[in-house]
Amino acid sequence: xxxxxxxxxxxxxxxxxxxxxxxxxxxxxxxxxxxxxxxxxxxxxxxxxxxxxxxxxxxxxxxxxxxxxxxxxxxxxxxxxxxxxxxxxxxxxxxxxxxxxxxxxxxxxxxxxxxxxxxxxxxxxxxxxxxxxxxxxx
Length: 138
Prior knowledge:
Blueprint: E1 2-11, E2 14-19, E3 30-31, E4 34-36, H1 43-55, E5 58-60, E6 64-72, E7 76-85, E8 87-89, E9 99-104, H2 118-126, E10 131-132, E11 135-136
Parallel strand pairs: 1-7
Antiparallel strand pairs: 1-2, 1-4, 2-3, 2-9, 5-8, 6-7, 10-11
């Protein structure tokens, strides 16, 4: 099982989504930024490192929003921890993606998301995209 930390970066009712490169597995699919754990990392440490590498930001990693296991027949099983990122320092710069963009939470279902990210999209919509101090509203 491959462990992954993923960030839900919000700006009001908008959420940052990132498009995979044409040359990557699942080309041009959209996803939330993040990546695989390195040895000894917590989910928060992993996500902070990944967001620095991918987007050049110093993330204020909040609470866990969602956790799931997902299996891709061609690449294995993943345990994915989605963490809220209510704020960050620096200016977002696209270092690794085909493109990045801010999407209103109501438009997320119209984005060609990576299959493994669809459950969290549904949860984001059910929460109405409202977050309070890094915690999903209930």
